[in-house]
Design brief:
The chain is an all-alpha fold and about 280 residues long. It is built from seven helices and two strands. Keywords: Membrane, Transmembrane, Transmembrane helix.
Length: about 280
């Protein structure tokens, strides 16, 4: 009975651990999605209001660094962001930006989240996303920034000084049209469709290359077979020449027999030469 209880307890612990792991993975995936969206929005607003930019694209920027720049811009009376958000709105934006920094911390350190933690982060994220989209639209219209180039996820690698040189494929996100998140989704969908079309000739070219390789192999085999046939013919001609030589030798010896009289040894040599010549001819 004690052993059964231990087994049941172990099964309950395993089940609890599996549920905890599934919950953690679900929360972590959601945090990653929020982080990516917030990094894009924070960088886009930073891109509009800053002329001397530190990063080539939003994938190269850390969320906490972008938040730090935006918090400074909220208090910079001579900056481009200050006229768009003042008073209580500015204070609340700075408060929410500080809150969403916890998302980056949770992702980086893989901190387990309770349901209450996720609810608080979701509330802060939703408000910040809506506010940033509104500010991006207003700033783009005020400062006549119509579009922004971004690198699709497929082309992004390690962030180095040669990032732009190594990742030349970009997509254009419109900032003066629909909400910027919708514009990003449309830009990525266009890029994916164009990439699929451009890969089609590559597939056809690959098929042609395979056909060419197969043809070259067949041609090589036929060429080798032809060379083997020529070599065999040369060997046959050489054998025929040798057989004729022995036949001629046997005929000369046969013609010399009457003058020499009966002699068993010449007859044996003549027979041997004829037999060897016949064997050469029979071989081919």
């Amino acid at each position: 009975m004690n052993q059964q209880q231990q087994q049941q307890q172990q099964e309950e612990e395993d089940s609890h651990n599996m549920e905890a792991a599934a919950t953690f993975n679900s929360h972590h995936s959601q945090l990653l999605e929020w982080q990516d969206t917030l990094e894009f929005l924070c960088f886009t607003l930073y891109y509009i209001i800053k002329e001397d930019r530190r990063w080539p694209c939003y994938q190269a920027a850390e969320l906490c660094d972008c938040i730090k720049e935006l918090i400074k811009a909220c208090s910079d009376k001579g900056g481009k962001l200050y006229p768009l958000i003042q008073g209580e709105d500015g204070c609340r934006l700075k408060q929410k930006l500080r809150q969403i920094r916890k998302i980056r911390h949770a992702v980086a350190h893989r901190v387990p989240q309770t349901e209450n933690d996720m609810c608080r982060k979701q509330e802060a994220t939703n408000w910040t996303i809506a506010e940033l989209e509104k500010l991006i639209g207003a700033a783009a219209a005020r400062y006549d920034i119509r579009s922004m180039e971004m690198y699709p996820p497929a082309t992004c690698g390690a962030m180095t000084n040669s990032f732009q040189e190594r990742n030349s494929q970009t997509v254009t996100v419109q900032l003066n049209g629909p909400p910027v998140l919708s514009a990003r989704r449309e830009a990525l969908e266009r890029f994916t469709a164009e990439a699929a079309v451009s890969r089609a000739p590559d597939r056809r070219r690959s098929q042609l290359e395979l056909y060419e390789i197969a043809y070259e192999k067949r041609l090589g085999k036929r060429k080798q077979h032809f060379q083997d046939m020529l070599a065999t013919r040369d060997r046959q001609l050489e054998r025929i020449k040798q057989a004729k030589k022995y036949e001629e030798l046997a005929l000369r010896q046969l013609n010399d027999v009457p003058s020499q009289g009966y002699n068993r040894l010449p007859l044996v040599l003549i027979t041997a030469n004829l037999a060897f010549a016949a064997s050469l001819m029979f071989y081919f």
